[in-house]
Amino acid sequence: MRSIQARLSIAETAARNAGEVLADFYTRRGSIDIEMKGPNDFVSVADRQAELCILNTIAEHFPNDRFIGEETGVSGTPDGEFQWCIDPLDGTTNFLKGAHNWCVSIGLLLAGHPVAGVVYDPVRQEMFEGGVGLGARCNGMALRVSGEADPARSTIGIGHVSRIPVGVFCGDTASLLGAGFSFRQVGAGALMLAYVAAGRIDAYFERHMWPWDAVAGLALIGSAGGRFLPYIGSEVGKGGMVLAANEALMRKAMAVLHVE
User: Fold this and answer.
1) Which residue segment(s) compose the domain that 98 sits in?
2) CATH assignment at residue 229
3) Per-residue pLDDT of the chain (260 residues; tens, 9 = 90+)
4) Cβ count near 76 (within 10 Å)
5) Domain match, 232 and 108 both
6) Which residue among 126, 134, 170, 236 has the highest number of C-beta atoms inside a 10 angstrom radius?
7) Same structural domain, 62 and 164
8) How far apart are CA 77 and CA 168, in angstroms?
9) Dihedral of the CA atoms 165, 85, 252, 192 (nearest 10)?
10) The last residue of a domain, from among 142, 175, 202
11) Maximum Cα interatomic distance, the chain, rounded to a whole number of Å
12) pLDDT tens across 1-46, in order?
């Protein structure tokens, strides 16, 4: 556990450092060069510089770990026991348009399982952090997932990416709304997972999330007493489905979505 705790502490430092880089770019975002990776999928120099900041900070302390960054790909020790999953800027579109819902996401895998995570919101200066056996906190305040078990009294975040056919997304959304859930979306999946850990929303569902978007938030949810579908295991590069909530609400959402 101490090795996880030590890594979590450095991840917090790395997230704050990256947040400072991003905050500077945010004030002059109108002059940033932007590239398009796919439909409504953007990357900028801000993403790349923030990711390098995170990598340099963590690698200085844990050079034998493996790193999976959204922008820089795989680096570090190929067979490293610990694997970092890094999204330097989740919610890039929000960031570039001047909306406030964006964050830094740094997750840690051990044997393919999410064991620690940091999600940092520089705009609101909220640091969500937690790990296995360590609990979860936001700015030092303990977090706990919502205890709501009734879909008709629950909010659920639903994410969509172009990898999932529109018809599938619409069908999932119709099923969840038909079961009584109320829908929320802020345009940054990692931030919404942190909100599940904090009990600000009751659940989150997305048919496919990359590990750099999902691992930190899932670790937070697990540390805050929540449950999530088994995620990726050894298939780190493929990403996978994310559904997270408290135990009772999770079972009901799984039945609605016909997932196991």
Assistant:
1) 2-142
2) 3.40.190.80
3) 669 999 999 999 999 999 999 998 888 765 555 544 445 444 567 888 899 999 999 999 999 999 998 777 787 787 779 999 999 999 988 988 889 999 999 999 998 899 999 999 999 999 999 999 999 999 999 999 999 999 999 999 999 988 899 999 999 999 999 999 999 999 999 999 999 999 999 999 999 999 999 999 999 999 999 999 998 755 667 889 999 999 999 999 999 999 98
4) 19
5) no
6) 236
7) no
8) 38
9) -80
10) 142
11) 50
12) 669 999 999 999 999 999 999 998 888 765 555 544 445 444 567 8
Nearest to 241 by CA among 220, 216, 219, 218: 218
E strands present in the chain: 34-38, 41-44, 66-69, 73-76, 82-90, 103-110, 113-121, 126-131, 135-138, 141-142, 155-159, 182-184, 203-209, 227-228, 240-245
DSSP-derived letter for residue 12 is H
Tokens representing residue 157 in the block: 């975040």
Q: Is the pTM of the predicted complex or chain greater than 0.85? A: yes
Long-range contacts of 39-44 (CB under 8 A, 24+ apart): 39/162, 40/93, 40/162, 41/162, 42/92, 42/93, 42/96, 43/71, 43/92, 44/92, 44/96
What region, left, alpha or beta, does residue 74 occupy, with left being phi > 0 and alpha being psi -120 to 50 degrees? beta
41 and 118 co-located in one domain: yes
Q: 198 near 221, Cβ under 8 Å?
A: no
Going by the DSSP 8-state scheme, the letter that residue 181 receives in this structure is P
- Name residue, tokens 């064991």: 115
18 and 57 belong to one structural domain: yes
Are residues 102 and 6 located together in one domain of the fold? yes
Q: What phi and psi values does residue 71 have, to the nearest 5 degrees?
A: -95, -35
φ/ψ region of 135 (left if φ > 0, alpha if ψ in -120 to 50, else beta) reads left
40 with 77, same domain?
yes
